[in-house]
Design brief:
Blueprint (H helix, E strand, L loop, with lengths): L2 H18 L3 H13 L4 H42 L4 H16 L3 E8 L4 E8 L4 H4 L2 E2 L4 H9 L3 E3 L12 H10 L3 E9 L6 E10 L7 H33 L4 H26 L4 H12 L2 E6 L9 E2 L23 H21 L3 E3 L2 E8 L2 E9 L6 H41 L5 H10 L8 E8 L4 H12 L5 E5 L2 E5 L6 H16 L3 E9 L2 H20 L6 E3 L5 H6 L5 H19 L3 H10 L4 H8 L3 H15 L6 H17 L2
Parallel strand pairs: 15-16
Antiparallel strand pairs: 1-2, 1-6, 2-3, 4-5, 5-6, 7-8, 7-11, 9-10, 10-11, 12-14, 12-15, 13-14
Helix pairs in contact: 1-2, 1-3, 2-3, 3-4, 3-8, 3-9, 3-12, 4-8, 9-10, 9-12, 10-12, 12-13, 14-15, 18-22, 19-20, 19-21, 20-21
Length: about 650
């Protein structure tokens, strides 16, 4: 078999393994088989490199599949809540999904027994021990008791040796009989902060040691929130039925409560249906504004708007840009006043989190949007100063739907950006290795590398550098742009047709706000194709270094804006463009009038600024030299002879002479 055919066969083998979802260890056998088959040298190195690339693609695909499974489970759970009929069935579904998504041996949910004053196992999945299934815990006992007592998630890689928990004989016996080792528990909370009420706990456990990641904790918290909503909704429906039975003789009160409950149920179904149909945060804001007959805006955790203001039938009708003082406009502008308004909104949202209810601030209702203990943003309602109980509860419940959508939106963005980030890393490290493959990968991810793109490189202080990557994802969210970390900086490839300098300036301003510290951004391009994009990144990186050296920390710019430094930094070294930009007014004047301003300026600098020597060099009267230099000043400005401008003029004169041969 010819050598190139042998290499191709091994590469096809790697593709077959990817297509079949083979385990990672199978990929390593390809290079081994090639070596045994006599493949060596560059061909063997190419196979080994292809193996590493295939493993990276496999990892990215598995990560994406896991994210899709998580999102599907959350949507399915929301569907169960929308069609809530049997509380036990919903809780069993949530526990089963928790076990499936976290890949644990068992999962279980505990609820308090108010009459007995302890906690019991309500639902288990994967449990084989009858002793464990019948466990009862007092407040503060074991990991579950600590979760219920503190209303915080707890995880242990080895429960039996963990001294943070109050061990009792009955609990330890049950855990030992079940064979559990690693346990993660999160609270079922109604409300949040100090006013939140723990109504149970959700657990995932393994029979071998294991460390649970922050993503797994956040996922279990989301499922616990769904379980809390299901329990609370079921309890609310039960309370409503009891109230209707007790108030059978009070027809007016019954009708009023029935109407309120019907509206709440319709609102819940409408919001749930909106989520199931793929609605976005702006759609939820519009639905809530319509239901509450007010104006609703969704803000991020920093107090900046995520959606335009949605106007209900009874709202004030104020647009985001002319909103009353107290909150930033929906276009995010406003300078210092806008920043102060955003800070005021953040404080109001923190108050809402602390009280577990919507609060009034400057005549508007503010409700925190939470995912577990994480503040995702806030909902702001205006035009309803008299928000009553049912409507206030609806407003507060809508924050849960908003948090679900924000979590889904962030998860999708992070998953997509992680895969795109791998492409950018390969593009920068080896643009010539497989240009066609890079273009094909980009096309599969919605990025046309053959289309001209701007390239931005951003950096910030070392102590806040870990925030920059997330800020870049947030900055590009909603468009077709992509970002990736590289060599201590973050590369951004935004969509849009701005110039490199304008794009860098806009990115620097917004990223500085998102990171909370100065972010310096350099731009280059537009460039098309893997090699050109890699070269544009190199030019932007050099420009970034120049901006830092020049003391322009927190600013944005491009090589074209740095004068002669841009000529040195730019990839194409646009000498003609620099000369034209620097001497253009003099050249045009000479061409139009037949004068010799450029020659006079060259003689003046060549004679060290001496008018006497310059007039001898030019063979003219000294007054002629003075008149010509006055004309130079009129064309170039009064500071043409400042040290910085004089340096650029002399460099442009020399480059012009060189270019003319």
């Amino acid at each position: 078999m010819p050598k190139n055919t042998s290499v191709a066969a091994h590469l096809r083998r790697l593709l077959d393994l990817l297509a079949s979802g083979a385990p990672a260890e199978d990929f390593g056998t390809v290079a081994t088989e090639a070596r045994r088959g006599g493949v060596g040298g560059d061909d063997l190195a190419e196979i080994e490199q292809a193996t590493q690339a295939a493993l990276r693609v496999r990892g990215a695909l598995r990560q994406h599949q896991r994210r899709e499974a998580e999102l599907t489970a959350l949507f399915d759970t929301a569907g169960d809540l929308a069609a809530l009929r049997d509380l036990d069935a919903v809780l069993r579904s949530i526990v089963r999904r928790a076990r499936m998504l976290l890949g644990t041996d068992t999962a279980y949910l505990t609820l308090p027994d108010e009459e007995a004053g302890d906690t019991f196992m309500r639902v288990t999945d994967g449990s084989v021990s009858e002793l464990f299934q019948n466990l009862r815990l007092q407040l503060g006992e074991g990991l579950g008791g600590l979760v219920a007592q503190t209303a915080r998630p707890y995880a242990t890689p080895d429960y039996r040796t963990d001294e943070r928990f109050h061990h009792t004989h009955s609990i330890d016996a049950g855990v030992l009989d079940e064979g559990l080792v690693a346990i993660l528990g999160v609270p079922l909370l109604l409300g949040s902060g100090s006013g939140g009420k723990v109504i149970g706990a959700l657990f995932a456990a393994d029979r071998t040691p294991r460390t649970f990641s922050p993503d797994e904790v956040a996922l279990l918290c989301s499922l616990a929130n769904h379980a809390a909503i299901a329990i609370d909704t079921a309890k609310a429906m039960t309370d409503a039925r009891v109230a209707l039975a007790e108030l059978a003789e009070a027809n007016a009160v019954i009708r009023e409560r029935s109407a309120a409950m019907q509206r709440a149920e319709e609102s819940h179904d409408r919001l749930s249906d909106l989520v199931l149909r793929g609605g976005d945060v702006a759609d939820v804001a519009a639905a809530v504004a319509d239901l509450l007959e007010g104006d609703v805006t969704v803000f991020d955790a920093g107090g900046w708007p995520l959606t335009p203001t949605a106007h209900g039938a009874g709202g004030a009708g104020t647009s985001g840009t002319d909103a009353p003082k107290g909150f930033v406009g929906t276009d995010g502008t406003g300078g210092t006043d806008a920043t102060d308004d955003a800070a005021a909104l953040v404080r109001a949202a923190e108050e809402s989190r602390a009280t577990a209810h919507a609060v009034v601030h400057d005549g508007r209702w503010v409700c925190a949007v939470l995912a577990g203990q994480e503040m995702l943003g806030s909902l702001v309602l205006s035009g309803r100063p008299d928000l009553d109980g049912p409507d206030r509860r609806l407003f507060e419940r809508s924050s849960v739907v908003t948090s679900l959508l924000l979590l889904l939106r962030r998860s999708v963005a992070e998953a997509e950006n992680r895969v795109r980030g791998d492409l950018i890393t390969d593009l920068l490290t080896a643009p010539d290795r497989d240009p066609a493959g890079l273009v094909a990968r980009g096309r599969n991810l919605g990025i046309d590398l053959n289309r001209p793109h701007l390239v931005l490189v951003a950096s910030t202080d070392a102590d806040v550098r870990d925030r920059l990557a997330g800020a870049a994802v947030q900055y590009l969210f909603g468009g077709d742009g992509v970002s990736a970390e590289h060599a201590g900086t973050v590369m951004l490839v935004p969509d849009g047709g701005a110039t490199p300098g304008d794009a860098a300036g806009a990115a620097a301003e917004q990223l500085t706000h998102l990171v909370g510290a100065p972010v310096t951004v350099a731009g280059a391009g537009p460039a098309a194709g893997p090699r050109a994009l890699a070269d544009a990144h190199a030019e932007a990186a050099r420009c970034l270094q120049a901006l830092t050296v020049l003391g322009r920390r927190g600013a944005g710019g491009s090589a074209g804006e740095l004068g002669f430094l841009g000529v040195l930094l730019g990839e194409d070294h646009d000498v003609e463009g620099f000369v034209r930009a620097t001497l253009g007014p003099l050249l045009e004047y000479d061409d139009r009038r037949g004068t010799q301003l450029v020659r006079t300026l060259g003689a003046y600098f060549g004679c060290g600024g001496s008018l006497t020597r310059a007039k001898e060099e030019l063979h003219v009267h000294i007054n002629t030299v003075v008149q010509r230099l006055d004309r130079v000043q009129a064309l170039l400005g009064p500071d043409w002879n400042s040290p910085e401008n004089a340096l650029e003029l002399q460099l442009a004169l020399r480059l012009r002479l060189l270019s003319r041969g």
